[in-house]
Amino acid sequence: MVTNPFQITLRATRISCGYTALEAAQACGIAEGTMNRYETDAGRVPRRTAVQLSRLYGGVSLDLIYWGKESDHFKRKGAESEYDNSTA
Question: Which InterPro entries match (predicted)?
Fold first, then answer.
């Protein structure tokens, strides 16, 4: 699977756009708990909700959001990072 090295998590996208989880959830007509679960595992987000979030977040491209488990994203980013603490 080819991934975009510049992808960010759904949670990071929301935060960078200045929304709380509650605000984003209300805009999509879902419960805040559901939004929190989606941010933990974005692979569970229905396409319709993903498009709603993209529009809410200013039209951010769906390709720029990591649509998997948030923990996997961080593992992947750490493993693929060009920089590590040993060279700092």
Answer: Cro/C1-type_HTH, Lambda_DNA-bd_dom_sf
